[in-house]
Amino acid sequence: MTDSIAQQQMLYVRDEMSDAEIAEQADLYGPLTDSVRELIELALLTEVDGPEVRAAQEHLESAKQILRTRVNPGPYGVRWGASGQKRAWGNAAAGLRNAIAPPLVFNFDADGRAWTDFHLGSAYEGPAGLTHGGIAALVLDQALGSAAEAGGAPGMTGTLNLRYLRPTPLGALHAEARIDRVEGIKTIVTGQLSGPDGVCVEAEGIFILPRWARGGDSAKVSDPV
Ligand SMILES: CCCCCCCCCCCCCC(=O)SCCNC(=O)CCNC(=O)[C@H](O)C(C)(C)COP(=O)(O)OP(=O)(O)OC[C@H]1O[C@@H](n2cnc3c(N)ncnc32)[C@H](O)[C@@H]1OP(=O)(O)O
Q1: 3-state SS string for 79-138
Q2: Residues near ligand 1 with C-beta < 6 Å?
Q3: Fewer Cβ close by (within 10 Å): the C or N end of the chain?
Q4: How far is the CA of 207 from the centre of ligand 1 (A)?
Q5: Are 24 and 81 in contact (CB under 8 A)?
Q6: 136 vs 90, 129, 193, 202, CA distance in Å?
Q7: Which residue's C-alpha comes closest to atom 46 of ligand 1?
Q8: Are 146 and 106 within 8 A, CB to CB?
């Protein structure tokens, strides 16, 4: 096993936090993430003048000073509480504590389906007024990976094929994914990203349980390490 894989595995942690403690943390840090996300959009779109920009920036410096008094060296990793509740709060596509993540809240079912209704603002723009293609890929990668995990056949993205059928607007969007089939350690998942006028991007992915996570009969592994 290489050092980098060993280090990666150490970021999968069972920390025995109770569900109540997890809810308390979500209530504390979730709104902070939402504020920072809103700040990103405001920094992009504000048209106030120089003195106001400088005053706002000074406030931000004070906020950063408070937050930096105690900091996890990072990355956040993936953590499980005492009841098995998972927190991938650093995830760049859907982490509750990651303000660069689009505001995605997934629904799952155990048949291997994941779906989310969400809103993308101006911070996710690619072509003028449209969603960036890389953001569409990010959302679909997460949706497909989450469906594989929900169906008890998790894996790392091995291959992700995308077909951009029509431009994806900003605003109200829907992403969904479902397991098509499981072939041993490989889970084949399909999905779509849709806007008000229909499907914008279709995806098919192969998710592979990595070598380091395989036990005896890896096809039966239902939980990431
Ligand atoms: C528990 C794991 C994590 C769970 C995370 C849940 C998160 C939820 C949501 C997260 C969502 C976001 C998720 C993310 O962002 S995941 C981040 C993005 N993905 C990566 O970084 C993956 C990097 N690659 C690897 O780690 C390895 O190459 C993998 C794990 C993919 C395979 O390396 P491994 O050493 O294990 O493979 P093997 O050589 O024993 O081959 C085994 C079989 O697989 C076939 N094959 C190999 N490579 C590919 C390929 N690229 N496409 C298609 N097929 C491939 C191969 O032919 C063979 O098939 P067969 O000959 O037996 O038929």
Answers
A1: EECCCCCEECCCCCCCCCCCCCCCCCCCEEECCCEEEEEEEECHHHECCCCEECHHHHHH
A2: 141-142, 145-146, 149, 154-159, 186, 206, 208-211, 213, 224-225
A3: N
A4: 6
A5: no
A6: 19, 14, 7, 10
A7: 158
A8: yes
pLDDT at 10: 86
Q: Which residues contact 172 (CB under 8 A, 6 or more apart)?
A: 117, 118, 119, 195, 196
**Average pLDDT, integer, range 189-196:** 99
- pLDDT more than 70, % of the chain: 95
Q: Is 49 helix (H, G, I), strand (E, B) or coil?
A: coil
Per-residue pLDDT tens for 154-165?
999 999 999 999
pLDDT at position 223: 43
Report all structural domains of the chain as residue ranges with CATH numbers, in order of start. Answer: 1-101 (no CATH), 103-225 (3.10.129.10)
Block residue for tokens 């497909």? 144
Q: Is the ipTM of this complex over 0.95?
A: yes
Residue 4: pLDDT band with limits 50, 70, 90: confident
211 Cα: distance to centroid of ligand 1 (angstroms): 8
